Every structure is written in C-alpha cells, then in structure tokens.
Amino acid sequence: MNLSLYIAKRYLFSKKSHQVINIISGVAIAGIALATAAMVCTLSVFNGFQGVVADQFTAFDPDIKVTAAQGKSFFTDSPEIETAANAEGIAVVSFSVEDKALVEYGGKQVMVTLKGVDDKFSQLTDIERVLHGNGEFILQDSLNSYAVLGGKIINELNCGIFFTTPLEVYAPNRGGKINLTMPARNFKKGVLLSSGLAFIVNQPEYDGGYILTSNEFTRKIFRRKPNEATSMEIKVAPGTEIEETKERLEAILGSDYIIKDRYEQQDDIYKVMQIEKLISYIFLTFILLVACFNIVGSLSMLIIEKRDNMNTLRSMGADNKTIANIFIYEGIIISAAGALAGIVIGLALCLAQQEFGFISMGSTESFVVNSYPVEVHMNDILTTFVTVLAVGITAVWLPVRILTRKLV
Hints:
Elements: H1 3-13, H2 19-58, E1 64-68, E2 74-75, H3 79-85, E3 90-105, E4 108-117, H4 121-124, E5 131-133, E6 146-150, H5 151-157, E7 167-172, E8 187-199, H6 204-207, E9 210-214, H7 215-221, E10 228-229, E11 231-236, H8 242-253, E12 257-261, H9 262-265, H10 267-305, H11 307-315, H12 320-356, H13 378-407
C-alpha cells in the first residue's frame, strides 16, 4: 500500500489531541455532503422538468419528422420517400401539410399554423390524451372539413369548443401578382366547422399557435397538389432505437431532407433547459468549492499537530512530496466521504419526492404537475461525484504543499 495513503487513513480515523480538529473535519464532510446532495437534487429536478416537457410534446410531436431541405414541400410518391417510408424499424408513417394562415371568427382574427393531417395521425401520436370536449377526432367527411383548435386560440377568438358559426380561414395565394385594388383576391378562403374538440398541450407554442384539420383542406387552401406534403412524420416500432432509425433514414434520404427526432424538433426549448441546468451546476460547484475550504482549515491544524511526526518521517528518509501527499490524500478521503454521503442523501430525497411529492408546485391549476418532478440519471450522479473529487483536490493541493513547506 502507498505509504502516504496508509498514514493519511490512520490520521483521519485516529484520535487527535485537539478535539477541534475532529469537529472541523466533521463540518467539512457535512458541508461537502450538503452541497453534493443539493447538486444531485437540483440536476434531478431539471431532468424531471425535461421529462414533463417531453411527455407533453409526445402527444403532439412524432418520434421522427422529415422535411425538405430546400423549399417547403416534397412529393410523397418520390422514390426516396417511398423507400424511407418502408424502412426497417418504422411502425407508422403519416404525411402532413402545414403553413401559416389567418383565422377569423366573430370579427376577431388570429394568425395560426394550420396543420393538415391524415387518418394515421391518431396512430402516430398520443393525441387522444390531450383532447378535450365531447366530439370525435374526425377532421373530414364527404361534405365538410373540421377543426381542432388549441385551447389558447379558443380564448383569443372567444369561440368556445362548440362554435356554431364556421371559422373563416385565409391563406395568401401562391405566386401570381398582388392585386392592390382588391386585396381580398390575394387570399384563398375556406371554412372549418367545429369538431367539438380542442387540444391542450400546456405549451403556448401549440395551444396558441396550431389548428388541426385534414390534409384535404390544407392542400386546397394552400394550393398544394394531392401528392404534395410539407412533412413526413414517423413513429418507430416498439423496441427500436430512434437514433438508429434516424441514421437509417439519413442514409436513404441524403442531404435533400432534414430529419429530426423529438428533441431536435423542440431544439430551442431543450437548449434553454440545458443552459439553465448548466448554470445551476456551475453555481453549485462554486458553493462546493467554498465548502471544501473547510478541509484546508482541518488539514492546517492537523499539520501543526503532527509536525513532530513529520520531522521523524523526514529523518527516516521521507521527502517533501511524500509528506505533502499524506495530507493531500486525507483531503481526498474527506472529499470522497462527503461526496458519497451527499449522493446517498440526495438519492433518498429524490426517491422521497418521487414517491410522496412533499414539495408542491403551489396552485394545482397553474401547473401541469402538482409537485416538483424528479428524474435521477446515472450520468448526473457520476458527474457530481467526479466534480466533488476534482474540486476537493483543487482546493487542498496547493495550500497543503505550501503549509507542509512552512510548518514542517
């Protein structure tokens, strides 16, 4: 066994002549444990919020979305699209036509994204989970087209879920000259009837921006051809990795198409959440660094107490590096002990929050969840442990070397 490590362990667990050294060491371990537990809990709460957001988007977003790299649309019967639709690992393929449109009801107007979907959309997503109302998810029949509005759009138009007057939808004509004398001729007009349903995803981007209807209606109002679509939306087969399927599609479709998984479809939101998580991690690391300075105080007093022992070791041939390493190893042991204790405490708190939800979000009507969501990821636990050790070593290495030169 390494001589410095052996002596460090003996010093750590042996009785000191000055009881205050034991107290300071205990305070150092407790401070590191609390900072570590705070880091575990904070990172796990961010994971929980990310999981809640992903769960909400799952009801609306597909596993994989394919769009054209150039222009807004592509043809569903092109050879590469047909090959991709039949690729291994794909369970459901749905084509969608969406674009911006103006919706008017009762004199009120709202700009929306009008999303046309086909009959496979309900198989593609878990849309039924976010639907509200007493209607059926039917967007087209032989006579009429129907709309499913986001909850916020219903509030802005003040139309209610069961609106009796049809929604008037206006889309600008594609191509051609603009008629300034008769502006109405610059727009294609259509009407949508109430389906008796609305969706609420609890995300403003969707609830206040999207209206679902049929592909037949959107192709007509946006002047798209029957075999034209703006996106191909895919649900992967159970047991299939989304990343593998995405790579397979990239090999088939090449650079002419953009392929995004569910997280990449909401890239802005997840980037913000990752930045917030990183900033919290940095702040907690600084708090951990302050906690680690207690170790320096404990080691300083220990060096003074063991000065005679160190002189004896020097007489027996130990050099300055060996003597300094004794106290550096003791600092590492204290850091590791605090880290392990903090991880255990943090995991216990996270499991308790998952099971009992004792920390509430406040008003249950204002949030999607009643209590703070928590998800423990093993990579966060490993990152926390490595961070504690790195900060502990950084905090004690230079002070210990300086003190052993001056005091021993």
